[in-house]
TrEMBL record:
Main localization (coarse): cytoplasm
Keywords: Coiled coil, Cytoplasm
Designated name of the protein: Centrosomal protein of 55 kDa-like isoform X1
Residue ranges of the region described as Disordered: 336-363
Amino acid sequence: MAEMASSKYKVSLKKKLSSELSVVVSSLRKERGHLKQTLAELSCQHAQLYRLVERVLSLETVRQGSCQHHEVKDQRTASASERCSERGGSLAEGGGITCEVEQLRSQIANMSARCQRLEKKVAGKKYLMPNSQGSTTSVEELQHLLRDALEKNKHWLEYDQHREAYVRGILDRMLWLEKQLNEANQARSMEHKEDHSDEKKELVEMQELYETFLHKAKDDLEELRKEVDLTHKSLVEMREMSLLEDHCCFENEDQQLRELQCRLDVVKRRSANYELQANLIQKCMLNRHHEDQERIADLERQMKISSQDLEDEKQDCSYLKKQMIRVLKTLQKTKKRVTKESKREQEDPPSCEEAQPPSQLSRQNVASSSCSSFLNESFLECPGCLAEYPASHYRELMNHMEICLD
């Protein structure tokens, strides 16, 4: 009982320590998550400011590049106008046509692909024969080409003007956006300064709280370590005790298992014997069943035979009854005859008897004695119970047959 109480106390102490540790760890995790959240918000604000600065710098670079491009376009247009004026003055001269054509080729090649095609045509016509007609045709063609070039230059100038107006609008828009950005940055910086000052205060407070919590946590951890050491020692002792108890229990269980194994062996032997007995009984029952089936078959056969015999006997009885009735009728007839003859003999006078010879008397006596002896010696049987009656008692037999057969 004391060991059980100590083990329960240790288990409850472990649960209490684990619950306190979980509470402290959960509070520290919550504070750590809150600090991470504040740091993430600050990093997001710094990232937004950095993005705004990068955008302003990109806009400035775009503006500078557009200005440079615009200056380059102005220089190109000025040089093209100067060259066109120089070409118009050089038409009066007849000897420097080839040099001007070469200059026009180089200038048109820089302007567009169509000018390149025209330059190819002029280059093909440069190798024509130097007669007067060829020179006039080449001059007319050059004039036509110069007109085309002037028209193209006008179109390019209009396009440059429109582009300059578009670029100026973009620059104005960029300047307005820069102003808006500067104002927004100033307002943001002011808010950021105020927020940053508040955040610094909060961070300082959080840092102090964090340090206090850390000190508390360290103290709690040291106490918990001590408690854990004690619990570890108690656990070691409990483990040793449990090992001893387990060893004893194991020995007891081993002995019980051996006893159970012996019982199982006995039960298996008994079950094997029972199975053998059951098999033998089953075989005996099967044999008996087969014998009973054979007996039943034999009895059925005997029943059929006996029923057939009965039918035959009934037929024989009916036949015998008919024969007996016939015999009885014949007996009655013979009896009537005998009675008639006896009556006649009695009615006859004695003289007649005396007058008769002795041979006739002896014959009549012999006939009557033979008839009576025949009736006494012959027996009739009942077909039901096989009772014997003499032929002279046929009336008794008739009454008996009526009772027995009914």
